Amino acid sequence: MIKYTNDAILDGIKLGDRRIVDYVYNECFPTIKFLITTNSGNELDAADIFQDALVIIFQKINTNDLNLTSSFKTFLYSICRNLWLQRLDRRVFNAKFLELEGRNNMQETLHLDFEELENEKYQIYQTHFLSLGKDCQKLLRLFLNKTPLVEIAKIMGFKTEKYAKTRKYLCKEKLKNKILNDPKCKKFF
Protein backbone atom coordinates (compact mmCIF):
# COMPACT_ATOMS: atom_id res chain seq x y z
CA MET A 1 0.00 0.00 0.00
CA ILE A 2 1.23 3.48 -0.85
CA LYS A 3 2.05 5.74 2.11
CA TYR A 4 1.15 9.42 1.69
CA THR A 5 2.85 12.37 3.37
CA ASN A 6 0.93 14.85 5.51
CA ASP A 7 1.04 17.40 2.69
CA ALA A 8 -0.22 14.88 0.13
CA ILE A 9 -3.09 13.93 2.44
CA LEU A 10 -4.06 17.55 3.08
CA ASP A 11 -3.87 18.40 -0.63
CA GLY A 12 -5.91 15.30 -1.48
CA ILE A 13 -8.60 16.17 1.05
CA LYS A 14 -8.75 19.74 -0.21
CA LEU A 15 -9.14 18.52 -3.80
CA GLY A 16 -11.57 15.74 -2.85
CA ASP A 17 -9.23 13.06 -4.21
CA ARG A 18 -11.07 9.75 -3.65
CA ARG A 19 -7.79 7.79 -3.41
CA ILE A 20 -6.61 9.98 -0.53
CA VAL A 21 -9.95 9.82 1.29
CA ASP A 22 -9.96 6.01 0.92
CA TYR A 23 -6.37 5.91 2.15
CA VAL A 24 -7.25 8.03 5.20
CA TYR A 25 -10.26 5.84 5.92
CA ASN A 26 -8.32 2.56 5.58
CA GLU A 27 -5.36 3.88 7.54
CA CYS A 28 -7.17 5.74 10.35
CA PHE A 29 -10.71 4.47 10.81
CA PRO A 30 -9.82 1.22 12.61
CA THR A 31 -8.03 3.22 15.33
CA ILE A 32 -10.96 5.62 15.68
CA LYS A 33 -13.43 2.72 15.75
CA PHE A 34 -11.42 1.10 18.56
CA LEU A 35 -11.34 4.39 20.49
CA ILE A 36 -15.12 4.86 20.26
CA THR A 37 -16.24 1.25 20.74
CA THR A 38 -14.08 0.83 23.85
CA ASN A 39 -15.49 4.05 25.31
CA SER A 40 -19.28 3.57 25.41
CA GLY A 41 -19.83 3.88 21.68
CA ASN A 42 -20.60 1.68 18.70
CA GLU A 43 -19.48 1.46 15.08
CA LEU A 44 -22.14 3.95 13.92
CA ASP A 45 -20.89 6.46 16.51
CA ALA A 46 -17.36 5.89 15.24
CA ALA A 47 -18.38 6.47 11.61
CA ASP A 48 -20.26 9.63 12.59
CA ILE A 49 -17.35 11.03 14.63
CA PHE A 50 -14.88 10.13 11.85
CA GLN A 51 -17.04 11.97 9.28
CA ASP A 52 -17.41 15.01 11.56
CA ALA A 53 -13.63 15.13 12.08
CA LEU A 54 -12.99 15.03 8.32
CA VAL A 55 -15.46 17.90 7.85
CA ILE A 56 -13.59 19.92 10.48
CA ILE A 57 -10.26 19.21 8.80
CA PHE A 58 -11.71 20.10 5.40
CA GLN A 59 -13.00 23.41 6.78
CA LYS A 60 -9.65 24.18 8.41
CA ILE A 61 -7.78 23.42 5.18
CA ASN A 62 -10.08 25.68 3.15
CA THR A 63 -9.80 28.58 5.59
CA ASN A 64 -6.02 28.18 5.88
CA ASP A 65 -6.53 27.62 9.60
CA LEU A 66 -4.55 24.38 9.79
CA ASN A 67 -1.11 24.26 11.32
CA LEU A 68 -0.18 20.58 11.40
CA THR A 69 2.57 19.95 13.97
CA SER A 70 2.11 16.17 14.19
CA SER A 71 1.32 13.33 11.83
CA PHE A 72 -2.04 13.55 10.11
CA LYS A 73 -3.17 10.36 11.84
CA THR A 74 -2.35 11.82 15.28
CA PHE A 75 -4.15 15.06 14.40
CA LEU A 76 -7.24 13.21 13.18
CA TYR A 77 -7.21 11.00 16.28
CA SER A 78 -7.09 14.02 18.60
CA ILE A 79 -10.04 15.67 16.82
CA CYS A 80 -12.06 12.43 16.98
CA ARG A 81 -11.19 11.98 20.65
CA ASN A 82 -12.28 15.53 21.49
CA LEU A 83 -15.51 15.17 19.49
CA TRP A 84 -16.28 11.87 21.21
CA LEU A 85 -15.61 13.30 24.69
CA GLN A 86 -17.91 16.23 23.89
CA ARG A 87 -20.63 13.85 22.76
CA LEU A 88 -20.24 11.75 25.91
CA ASP A 89 -20.44 14.92 28.01
CA ARG A 90 -23.68 15.88 26.23
CA ARG A 91 -25.11 12.41 26.87
CA VAL A 92 -24.29 12.66 30.57
CA PHE A 93 -25.64 16.22 30.68
CA ASN A 94 -28.87 15.22 28.94
CA ALA A 95 -29.33 12.27 31.29
CA LYS A 96 -28.75 14.51 34.31
CA PHE A 97 -30.99 17.21 32.86
CA LEU A 98 -33.80 14.71 32.32
CA GLU A 99 -33.28 13.30 35.81
CA LEU A 100 -33.31 16.79 37.33
CA GLU A 101 -36.32 17.76 35.24
CA GLY A 102 -38.16 14.70 36.54
CA ARG A 103 -37.24 15.52 40.15
CA ASN A 104 -38.25 19.14 39.70
CA ASN A 105 -41.67 18.14 38.46
CA MET A 106 -42.11 15.90 41.49
CA GLN A 107 -40.94 18.44 44.06
CA GLU A 108 -43.70 20.86 44.97
CA THR A 109 -41.25 23.38 46.38
CA LEU A 110 -39.99 24.24 42.90
CA HIS A 111 -43.48 24.85 41.42
CA LEU A 112 -42.24 24.46 37.85
CA ASP A 113 -44.92 24.05 35.28
CA PHE A 114 -43.53 21.45 32.88
CA GLU A 115 -45.66 22.55 29.94
CA GLU A 116 -44.61 26.16 30.37
CA LEU A 117 -40.96 25.12 30.48
CA GLU A 118 -41.35 22.96 27.38
CA ASN A 119 -43.14 25.78 25.54
CA GLU A 120 -40.35 28.17 26.42
CA LYS A 121 -37.73 25.70 25.13
CA TYR A 122 -39.76 25.17 21.96
CA GLN A 123 -40.07 28.92 21.38
CA ILE A 124 -36.31 29.37 21.72
CA TYR A 125 -35.76 26.51 19.28
CA GLN A 126 -38.40 27.84 16.85
CA THR A 127 -36.95 31.38 16.92
CA HIS A 128 -33.48 30.17 16.03
CA PHE A 129 -34.70 27.58 13.55
CA LEU A 130 -36.58 30.27 11.64
CA SER A 131 -33.47 32.49 11.64
CA LEU A 132 -31.61 29.87 9.59
CA GLY A 133 -31.51 30.16 5.82
CA LYS A 134 -34.33 28.53 3.87
CA ASP A 135 -32.06 25.71 2.63
CA CYS A 136 -30.97 24.80 6.16
CA GLN A 137 -34.57 24.87 7.36
CA LYS A 138 -35.69 22.61 4.52
CA LEU A 139 -32.76 20.21 4.98
CA LEU A 140 -33.31 19.93 8.75
CA ARG A 141 -37.07 19.43 8.32
CA LEU A 142 -36.38 16.59 5.90
CA PHE A 143 -33.89 15.09 8.34
CA LEU A 144 -36.31 15.42 11.29
CA ASN A 145 -38.97 13.69 9.19
CA LYS A 146 -36.50 10.78 8.87
CA THR A 147 -36.08 11.24 5.12
CA PRO A 148 -33.12 9.09 3.98
CA LEU A 149 -29.96 11.04 3.09
CA VAL A 150 -30.09 9.74 -0.50
CA GLU A 151 -33.56 11.24 -0.86
CA ILE A 152 -32.49 14.47 0.88
CA ALA A 153 -29.62 14.82 -1.62
CA LYS A 154 -32.07 14.46 -4.52
CA ILE A 155 -34.63 16.88 -3.08
CA MET A 156 -32.02 19.49 -2.21
CA GLY A 157 -30.18 19.09 -5.52
CA PHE A 158 -26.92 17.89 -3.94
CA LYS A 159 -24.61 15.72 -6.00
CA THR A 160 -23.92 13.14 -3.29
CA GLU A 161 -25.37 11.68 -0.14
CA LYS A 162 -22.07 12.49 1.59
CA TYR A 163 -22.50 16.19 0.80
CA ALA A 164 -26.07 16.05 2.14
CA LYS A 165 -24.71 14.59 5.39
CA THR A 166 -22.06 17.32 5.59
CA ARG A 167 -24.62 20.08 4.97
CA LYS A 168 -26.97 18.55 7.57
CA TYR A 169 -24.12 18.58 10.09
CA LEU A 170 -23.24 22.21 9.32
CA CYS A 171 -26.88 23.36 9.56
CA LYS A 172 -27.37 21.42 12.79
CA GLU A 173 -24.20 22.95 14.28
CA LYS A 174 -25.30 26.45 13.24
CA LEU A 175 -28.68 25.95 14.93
CA LYS A 176 -27.10 24.45 18.03
CA ASN A 177 -24.66 27.35 18.38
CA LYS A 178 -27.46 29.91 17.97
CA ILE A 179 -29.48 28.21 20.70
CA LEU A 180 -26.55 27.74 23.08
CA ASN A 181 -25.55 31.40 22.70
CA ASP A 182 -29.07 32.63 23.46
CA PRO A 183 -29.16 34.18 26.97
CA LYS A 184 -32.68 32.77 27.47
CA CYS A 185 -31.22 29.29 27.09
CA LYS A 186 -28.79 29.68 30.02
CA LYS A 187 -31.41 28.83 32.64
CA PHE A 188 -31.84 25.36 31.18
CA PHE A 189 -28.20 24.46 31.85
Give a topology summary:
Blueprint: H1 6-15, H2 18-37, H3 43-62, H4 72-106, H5 114-130, H6 134-144, H7 149-156, H8 161-180
Helix pairs in contact: 1-2, 2-3, 2-4, 3-4, 6-8, 7-8
Can you walk through the features of this model?
- This protein has 189 residues and is an all-alpha fold.
- It folds into 2 domains: 6-85, Rna Polymerase Sigma Factor, Chain: A; 113-188, Arc Repressor Mutant, subunit A, CATH 1.10.10.
- It contains 8 helices and no strands.
- Mean pLDDT is 81; it is low at 105-112.
- It has helices spanning 6-15, 18-37, 43-62, 72-106, 114-130, 134-144, 149-156, 161-180.
Short description:
This protein is mainly alpha-helical and 189 residues long. 75% of the residues lie in helices and 0% in strands. Mean pLDDT is 81; it is low at 105-112.
Number of DSSP-assigned strands: 0
The percent range for helix content is: over 70%
Low-confidence stretches: 105-112
Report the sheet with the most strands, covering strand number, pairing sense and barrel closure.
none
The percentage of residues in β strands lies in: under 5%
CATH hierarchy: architecture of the largest domain: Orthogonal Bundle
Mean pLDDT: 81
